[in-house]
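Reading a protein record of the kind used here takes only a little practice. Each token is a code from a learned vocabulary of local backbone shapes. With that in mind, consider the following protein and its fold in token form:
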Amino acid sequence: MNSDLVIDFINTAGFGPDREDLPTAAALVRWLADRGLDPGSRVTRAEWDEARAVREALRDLLSAHNEVDTDVGAATAVLDRAARRAGLGVRFANGSARLEPSAAGVSGAVGRILAEVSAGMADGTWERLKACRADDCRWAFLDTAKNRTRAWCSMQSCGNRAKVQAYRARNA
């Protein structure tokens, strides 16, 4: 799995001010093209909206990995629709199989990201991807802790803030 691609895609939005890396359809085209995912030259408003909906559905699934209550069913439905639009299917080459989209454009590019998610589910990497528990962050990260218990994107910022808040609540 190319976890960097998936994490980078999810982290195109943050919860701080001005933390939207895909504010326009043109920005989505540039972002996808910069990562070798050819979106074509034209992107419709619907395709732009779909890509951002897929991003948030993936974030919701990563939040669920971190014991945050999310609507996994709704997120899964968004991803399933996007996979169908991408025409994701098994392709065989050089004695191996992998998922690839048959659609072109943004749907195909999003399909390539979803194919990486599928590969991560197959190889176990997906379960290590999480979204930060901090409500004002939700940044995607790879949990590299041996026991897979990392809760925050950064102990220095989100983790420290959460621990200080818990301490103050206990000692109020």
Observations:
- The radius of gyration is 17 Å.
- The chain has a mean pLDDT of 89.
